[in-house]
Amino acid sequence: MRCKQPLMVRVMELLYTVSEKRSSDDAHLTSLYNGGGMCTVSSKNIVAFTRMTTRQDSYRHRIPVCTVYVMDLNCPYEPHVILDSASTVISLVFNSEGSQLLVVLSLGTVQLFTKGSSLHNWTSTHTCDWDGEDILHINFFHGGIRASLQSSDVKVHSLYTEKFVAQSHRPTLVDHGQCAQNGFFAVSASGLLLVCVLTHEGTVMMEKKAVLGQIRDNFTVATAALAPSGHIHIATWKPEMIKCWRAELKMTNQNCGGGKGDLNITIEAAQSFCPSRSGSTWHSTQKNEGLMQVTCLRYTELEDPNSLLVALTVEKPVETSPTQQVGIKASSTPNTCSMSHLVKKYHLQDQIRPLIKLFKPKTDSAGITTKEWICVGEWVSNSPVVTLGTSSRHLLPGPPGAQLPFIITAATADAFIYSINRDNMQQLSSHSLLNVRGSGDDAPVSKRVSLDRRVVSLAHTWSGFSVLAMDTSSSLHFITLVRPADVGPQWAISVILLLEFALVSGHDWWDLLVSTPPTSVPTLTEKLSETFHQHSAPIIQHLHTRFLVMKTSMLRLLGSQQQKAIESRLQAQLTATQQIFRSLRPVTCDVATADKNISASIQGYLESRSSLDILDIEKSLDHLCSSVNIKDCQVDPGQLQNLQPLLQFSADLTLFILFMLAQNSKFELARDPKIVQSLRELIFVARLWHRQNKLVLPQMFHKTQSVDVWAQIYKILTRLVHILPAEPDSSLIDECVLLETQVVCRELPLHVPSRGVLADMASSVPTPLQYEFGQGETSSTSNAGVQPRILEGALPPLQMLDPLHYHYIAPQEPKFNCTRCCSVRASWWGDSESAWDQQWASNCICSGHWALPPITPSKAA
Length: 861
Known about the structure:
alpha+beta, five-stranded mixed sheet, 20 helices
C-alpha cells in the first residue's frame, strides 16, 4: 500500500504559536538551536520543553545553557523554570498521571522530577548517572491500569460501566505483595537496558544494567513498548537490520528474613527484520542495492508491541544507458543517486512457512507458523523525515468507517508537518511552518528567519486531537489535527465519549475544549448531563463535583452561556462544600463504628415534608435531635475552625441571592432549586454545630441586633424551596426586602473570567493566535476583570478575593494565579492540613493549575 502525496481534503489548523521577541542583533544566535530541542505533553495538558539560553561566566563569556520549562497549554506565555544545565537535554518523558517527569541529559545523566501542589513546584527526587551512556529511549514502568472504551457498538446514553472497561495488563514489575512497582527503564546506544526501581515513597530501591543480547552492540535509534503481558518490547536499529528484544523484570526474594531482594532481568531475542528485504520471498537471495538509513523508530501505540513505524531514507544509484555513461565520463560528473524518504508501517503477523525448501513446495505441504514483520503500508515524502509523533493510545477503536482515524504525524526537513492515517498510511493534511504571519523588525526572530527553521520535536495530546510542534528557533506551535467538518456526525459522539473518559480517568479535558466549536457546547453539555444523571447515587456523589467543573469549563466557551457557567461553578463549589460537611465524623466515632454519620439523616430530614412545614430553624433542630443521639452531632472543634471560611461563603452567597431577589424577582440564581437547597442544608448544619461551638458563626454587618438574621435566612430559603419552581409570591419578596433593613450585604464577584487561550477563543480572536514568552496578559483578559455593580445598596466587593478559600488577599501578600481563569489564592494555602485545602491545592475549581505570577524568562540564545 503506497501513498504518494494525494489530493488534500483536510487542513491542519494552527491554533497558536508562542515564540520569543528578540532584536535583529540577536539573529546570529539562532545557530545554537541547530542541536535540536525537545517537548512533551502530559495527560494534564502540561507541557515540558527545552530552550537554549545564554549566561555569562566569570570571564564574561557567553556560554549556552539548556533550560527546561513547564507550563499549561492554556497559558503558553507563562513558562516556569525547573532546571538549568550546561549539558544538552535529549529527552523529556511524563508518567501516565503527569506527576513525574524524566529529564535525560547528555553523558547518561537522568533526573527524576516530582510535581508539588503548584505548577511551578517541581522537585528533583533522584539522579541516575549511567557512566556516560548515550540514552536513546526512556520511559516509566506500566502500572497495570488500562481503562479503555468498549470497541463494540455502545450507545451514547449507555452507562459508564458499559462504555468503559478495565482491560487486563500486567504491570512491568510486581513486588512481593503483588503490587505494581514504580520505576523507569532506558535503552542506551551501546546495547544496554538500564533499569531504576523506585519505592512507593519515591526513593530509589535499586539500579541495574543488562546487555541486549550475548554481546554489546552499537545502535543509533531505539524505541520500546509495554506489552499487556508485562514484557518490555524493544526495537533498535543498526546498519541494515532492526533488531528486536523482549525483556522481563522480576523481583526475587533472596533474603528469607524479609529483605528487599534482587531484580532479575531476562532478555530474549524477538523477531527482527531487515527493511531492505521486507516483502521478499522466503528463499530469495537478491539484495536491494543502495544505502538505507533509519531516522526514527516508533511503536504506533505504547501498549501495542505488534505495530511499528519506521522512518527511513533510501539512496539508490540511478541506472544509466551507454550513451548517458559516455556523457557522464566526458563531464567527469560522479554517478547520480535517487533519494527516497519513506515512513513504513510494519505489523507482526503469523506466517506459515514450509520446513524444507530444496524443491519447490507443494500447495498442501506441511509448514510451521512463525512470527514475521510484514510491511502493511507506507507513506512517501519529498524530504527527509526528521521525527514521528503518535499519541500513546487509540481511545476510539471500532469498525472501519465508524470511528475517528488514529492520526500519526511526520515532520520533514523542509519545515512541513504531515498528518497520516495510521490504518491505511494515507496522507490527510499538511502544514508548513514557513507560513507564519508577521515579518517586521518587531516580530519574533522565529518569524523573520523562517527559512532556517525546521521541526525538531512532536508531542501529541492524550486524546490525539492535537499536536505540539517545536522548531529550531525554540518556538512552539499548537496544531489541531481533527476538525468537526472533516468527521461529520461522528464528531459529537466521539467528543462525548472522550469527555466522559476524561471524567472517570482523571485526564484533563482542555485539548478537547479547544477542538470543540462553541456553537455545539449547549448540545454537548445537555447530552453529558442526561447520561450522568442516569447513574446510581454513589457514582453521582463521587463524580458530581468533577462533572460540574467540566460543565463549567464548556459553558465558558460560549458568550451567551456565561450565566449558566456561573450557576454551574457555584453548584460545583457548593457540592464540594456539602461533601466536606457530610464527610465529617462525630467525636463518638471509633474504629468499630467508622461508618457512623448522621449526614444521611440530616439530608433525608431536610428533603422531607415536615422540615418544609417548620420555618423556625431552632424548632427544626429540636425536631431532628429528637430522633438522633445528640452526641452523634458533635464534631471535632478543630475541624469546625477550618470550615469557618466555607460557612462564611455560604452565608454571604445566600444574602447576595436574597437581596438580588428583592430587587429582581427574575434573578436566575434564586430560581435554581439545587443552589437554594444546598445553601439551606449548609445553613442548617452550621446552626447545628453552633450549638456545640459558639465560634461557628458567620460574620454579618447587622443593622439591628434584635433580629436573628441567621434564622431569618433559613426561613426564607425554606419558603423558597417550597415554592420553586413556581414564581416567588409577593409575601416572599417582601420578606427579602425586609431583610435588607436588618443586615448589610457585600456584593460578590460571581463571574470569574477565563484567561489565556480560552479567553481569546471566547472573545473570537482570529487564529492563529500569536504569543510571546513572558508577554503578560492579553487585552481581552485584562479588561474582563472589571465587572459592573449589579446589587444596589451593597458594600463594594473587595479586590483579590480567593474564591475557594474565601480569603481576601492583600496586594503585597504572595499569591498564586490560576492558569485558566482569573482566580488567585494565597501561597500558604496548600500547606494546610484541612481536607478542603488539600482538595483544591493543585487545581482551581475551573480545572486550571495554580502557579506563581509570570516572570519574564531569561533571554534565549
